[in-house]
Amino acid sequence: MTAVPIHIEVLYALPDVQSLIQVQVTEGATVEAAIRASGVLESFPEIDLATNKVGVFSKLVKLNERVRDKDRVEIYRPLIADPKEVRRKRAEEGKVTKKGGGEAAPGPSAAVDKTEA
């Protein structure tokens, strides 16, 4: 039986550089095999497949998942900060800004005298 070649892309992005590598693997190849065949691990030695998460078209997958023709395999960098912590800090800063916004502008008095003379 002849191995059928399939074409996929392997993507790895840094803040200032994006690497999109087209690679041909045989049908039935795994995500890990596709990543290794692309040569991206040699170009970016900081990638550690034991810790970096991977996905196909923005959906997390395991390294032993099989790739299909025209898949885009993505290697994700670890998060620098916890998203929950960042949102919490941003919300706290917003509260300080609202509280320290200055004095209220003078306007009509809330107390109204409705007595007739």
From TrEMBL:
Q: Give the matching InterPro entries.
A: Mopterin_synth/thiamin_S_b, RnfH, RnfH_sf
Residues annotated as region Disordered? 87-117
Q: Where is the composition biased (Basic and acidic residues)?
A: 87-96
> Its family?
Belongs to the UPF0125 (RnfH) family.
> What protein does this entry describe?
UPF0125 protein GZ085_03895
The UniProt entry, under Pfam families, shows: Ub-RnfH
